[in-house]
Amino acid sequence: MSNYTVYGVDDENQRITVTDDLTANITILELSTIELGQLADVDLNNLQASQVIGYNSVAGRWQNIDQGAQTAGVTPVISMATDQKQLGPSQFTVTNYAGYTLPNFKFDIKNSSGIVVLTQDDITHNGSGVFEFANSSLTPGNFTLETTVQDFGNAASVVVTTSFTLSAISFRYWRIDGFDGDIDGTLIMIPGIRFFSDPGQSGTQYPPSMTSNTAPSPYVASGQGSFDNNVYDYWKVFDSNDVTTFYWNLSGNSATDHIDLDMGSTTTVKSMRFNNGSQASYIYGSLRVSGSDTGAFGGEQTVIGTFTVPKILNGVGNVG
């Protein structure tokens, strides 16, 4: 049995018994001005209604706070792309974050039915007001991010609502181009590219290891710029060897060279992997991925993004 004394405001002494793995008697005593006066920097004279006492960790002291006279909370300013892709975490920024002292943020993400699907417990602060959340569990659609902030000594801000659309990355036809190579910025060797059904380069791999431009069915690899179709053909980036077999555009032209993949049907991708090669003269630092429903790539395609790859021998770039 352990005894604990807790100071609180009450008309008379009360005793509470808590039974768990340990049993404790907790005595709640009336909190008098004598006990309050032991807190440094707290003025107990001429107290007014709505005044409370709070600890200012920046100043390192307790202080009086007049709730009735609190200034209005500084409204958070949210910057977030309205079109979010379900490929890696979504990010948003509180652009006036530096203006707060000790902010306490409350976030709710709601679906189109107004149901809360994510809260601040699901959101990570990366520092300097940049926040992110995993979106892989969400059903693509329209969402709202509701943000409030309460800074120390101020009332809570108004609710700021930010709307965004979450889109699945689902296409039948895929194009990889826009290579950033070392020689003239164009000439590259790519030993491996993979798409995956789940985040973190997991789940089903697309395509399965290819053995030609048309096998296994229904996958078809094609493109432009291969230096030698017999040795450095397009399907080589999708074979089982991500180290020593390549697509190589030795006669390259960054404006036109590309690798295409026909998945055979609309396929949803939630992560990707890009491998760099073992020849220093032909490693690359970035590439662009686009998707199309028709395969024309004549302007109807959607640019999914330009992604960086570690520009080192055998570097691996993971997305999502």
Set out the fold topology.
Layout: E1 2-8, E2 14-19, E3 23-30, H1 33-37, E4 51-56, E5 61-66, E6 78-79, E7 83-85, E8 90-94, E9 104-111, E10 116-119, E11 123-127, E12 130-133, E13 141-150, E14 160-167, E15 170-177, E16 189-190, E17 192-198, E18 202-206, E19 220-224, E20 247-248, E21 258-268, E22 271-275, E23 286-292, E24 302-308, E25 316-319
Parallel strand pairs: 1-3, 7-14
Antiparallel strand pairs: 2-3, 4-5, 6-8, 8-12, 9-10, 9-13, 11-12, 13-14, 15-21, 15-23, 16-20, 17-18, 17-22, 19-21, 22-25, 23-24
Explained architecture:
The protein is built from one helix and 25 strands. It folds into three domains: 2-69, no CATH class; 78-167, Immunoglobulin-like (Sandwich); 170-319, no CATH class. It is mostly beta strands. The model is unreliable at 1-34 (pLDDT under 50). The chain is elongated, with a radius of gyration of 29 Å. It has a five-stranded mixed sheet, with no helix packed on it. Strands 19-21-15-23-24 form a five-stranded antiparallel sheet, with no helix packed on it. Strands 6-8-12-11 form a four-stranded antiparallel sheet, with no helix packed on it. It is 2% helix and 45% strand.
Question: Total helix count?
Answer: 1
The overall strand count is: 25
User: Can you tell me the number of structural domains?
Assistant: 3
Low-pLDDT segments, ≥5 res: 1-34
Task: Please state the overall shape, judged from the principal axes of the Cα atoms.
Answer: elongated
The residue fraction in helices comes out at under 10%
Average predicted confidence as pLDDT = 83
Sequence of secondary-structure elements: EEEHEEEEEEEEEEEEEEEEEEEEEE
Give the N-to-C terminal Cα separation: 53 Å
Strand content: over 45%
Radius of gyration: 29 Å
